[in-house]
Amino acid sequence: MADLNRIARTLVSDRRGILAADESIATMSSRLEKVGVEPTAESRRVYRELIVTTPQLADSISGVILADETFHQKLSNGRTFPDYLGDIGILAGIKVDTGAKPLAGAPNETITEGLDGLRERVADYVRLGATFAKWRAVITIGDNTPSDRAVHANLHALARYAGLCQEGGLVPIVEPEVLMDGTHSLARCQQVSTAVLRSLFEELDLMQVKLDGIVLKPNMVVAGTGSAEHPTVAEVAAATVEALRATVPASVPGIAFLSGGQRPEVATQHLGAMQHLDPLPWELTYSFGRALVGPALETWRGDEKNRAAAQKVLSELAVANAAAR
Ligand code: 13P
């Protein structure tokens, strides 16, 4: 059985963080189209190859989360993506949820699916080189949301996923994302995030998930994108750490934030400000998608001539986040 605690600690230690390159085929295709690239299995492969072959990536990135399609693809040198990542000292992760679908009886809310057949899929991914996994639950803030049933259904599924991963030898990244969409205040985001994290740890306890063998991937506590409030970096850092301190047991080795649509430099500033709020019982790091790879994709635009420049942009953001730690 893999040493889950050792893998979890490797993911969050040494000032490194996790790169989320696990966009679904639909999401990745629409992001490619936005920069003028025809979305095909091959263009998605080429783009992901650009990301993982960025020079010195392993200095600031401990793990890369891949989508199922990429997990089975090969680089130009013939290595599979998980094997190549292993070669360069980066752990390979796999997104195992199958996406957020409308939740019955809960308008505007979703339930993340993917539990059916998960035990067998975990075994396949372990055989192919995965050491950790990801599942994202989505919680929305609105006039009548989140509803109790959406919170309960999503966190229950997240805990069942975590239990199945640990049983099969994968460290689960446990991601309850409270979305930034909406006009809510910082205080409301803190209240919802705290309630969600509290319920999450109850569900994880019920499922007997070993907390020293998970990585928590929460949202930062921010005001909604349509809010009139513009909290300072210090206010966001304080509200986020307060929510975590109130809910996350010290046995969790590390917390790796999603970026959630924040501008890359803002996400990095928030991460940096939290490090100074000592003493923290867990490592605080990053598991960014857009805040790491967004500018690289914009720079690349499908043109081989832009490849080195795109990798440079990604590298600079990864180094800036490592430095923020
Ligand atoms: P963002 O950092 O772009 O929010 O993505 C992180 C992620 O993995 C979402 O599931």
Tell me about this structure.
This protein is of the alpha/beta class and 325 residues long. It has a single domain, classed as Aldolase class I (TIM Barrel, Alpha-Beta Barrel), CATH 3.20.20. Helices cover 47% and strands 16% of the residues. The chain is built from 13 helices and 10 strands. The chain has helices at residues 4-12, 25-34, 41-52, 57-60, 68-71, 81-87, 118-127, 148-168, 186-206, 233-247, 264-275, 290-300, 307-324, and strands spanning 17-21, 61-66, 91-95, 99-102, 110-113, 132-139, 171-178, 215-216, 254-257, 283-288. The strands form 2 sheets. The chain has an 8-stranded parallel barrel, surrounded by 8 helices. Strand 9, helix 11 (264-275) and strand 10 (283-288) form a beta-alpha-beta unit. Helix 8 crosses helix 9 (186-206). 49% of the residues are buried. 1,3-dihydroxyacetonephosphate binds next to helix 12.
What are the key terms here?
325 residues; alpha/beta; TIM Barrel; eight-stranded parallel barrel; 16% strand; globular; binds 1,3-dihydroxyacetonephosphate
